[in-house]
Amino acid sequence: MTQRFSFTRLGQDGAARLGRINTPRGEIRTPAFMPVGTAATVKAMRPESVRETGADILLGNTYHLMLRPTAERIARLGGLHRFMNWDRPILTDSGGFQVMSLTGLRKLTEQGVTFKSHIDGSKHVLSPERSMEIQKLLGSDIVMCFDECPALPAPRERITESMELSMRWAARSREAFGDRPGHALFGIQQGGLEEDLRGKSAEALRAIEFDGYAVGGLAVGEGQEAMFGVLDYAPGMLPEDKPRYLMGVGKPGDLVGAVKRGIDMFDCVLPSRSGRTGQVFTRRGVVNIKNARHADDPRPLDEDCTCPACRSYSRAYLHHVFRAGEILSSMLLTWHNLHYYQELMQGMRDAIGAGDFAGFEARFLAQQAEGDIAPV
């Protein structure tokens, strides 16, 4: 790959940004939502179906893939894109978040993290250098540096130590990544809910220089109000000419509020996981298809949606296949949720381009507040 990774801002409305990321494997329209393909698959979806929802990029999980089937095996089989039949861009996380959540199964040192696999108890070591090696074997287009992400709330001393360790690991990740034309390395800002620590983290990352920057350490228990409080200042600490990625977020309202504050990229398991449990996101808020009130309802989930679930099936049928435990339920409801998320992102892109993001947000919030309309 000789083409370089690049980011172009095409418009701005307030802090909300319209842009385009160019990669050798295709264009990523921003603001962008990345469906999560944890184990080289978006659960209940074919890659072709994910693309049909409008997704330009997927996320893969370093921790899960390094354990099964292993990064080395994927590399021997031609890399993650070929392995999972997805020829568009892929971002891989560093594995740090999953490893840090293995309470009682890990040991943290300056060098990295030693942990036991949740699958078979086998011992593994993950460090900045090993994380970069795994992500290179996978062949991901956007690589995340290795960091530590403590759960919130946490004492300031703990947040400070974690942020400083993450910045040392960021420098090691940058060195281990090297120069890989066509591939990008993103740094991750840490600092919890502390504005001064966020500033110090951003300063350290800018000095190292990355192709993009993530706001990490949020959506870990602090709540939306606190998260928005951080996003009121954190994105502005990062370079304007590089993409800004909010990791692990979130609900539709989180996405709208974060785009308003200058975020360009998102990922979250919520739309796919919720689809499998009967929770559906629509223009009028959340619909729980398991509820008995849908059993005789001939209407679609969302009358304005063009996904296969809304185009061809009634709420009554979707209620039936969910209650019957049919696999089709997970397929259709996941497809709908991912389709809705991509339509939401397109709506925000259109609004920014038209200079009407405030109007878009007002209409979004009003419609969500109305709630789902009960059957007549």
Characteristic key phrases:
376 residues, alpha/beta, TIM Barrel, 2 domains, nine-stranded parallel sheet, three-stranded antiparallel sheet, 15 helices
Q: Would you kindly provide a written description of the structure presented here, covering whatever features stand out?
A:
- It is a single chain.
- The protein has 2 domains: 262 residues, Queuine tRNA-ribosyltransferase-like (TIM Barrel), CATH 3.20.20; 94 residues, no CATH class.
- It is an alpha/beta fold and 376 residues long.
- The protein is 41% helix and 19% strand.
- It has a 9-stranded parallel sheet with strand order 4-15-14-13-12-11-7-6-5. The chain has a 3-stranded antiparallel sheet with strand order 1-2-3. A 3-stranded antiparallel sheet has the order 8-9-10.
- The N and C termini lie far apart (58 Å).
- α7 runs parallel beside α8 and α11 runs antiparallel to α14.
- The mean pLDDT is 96.
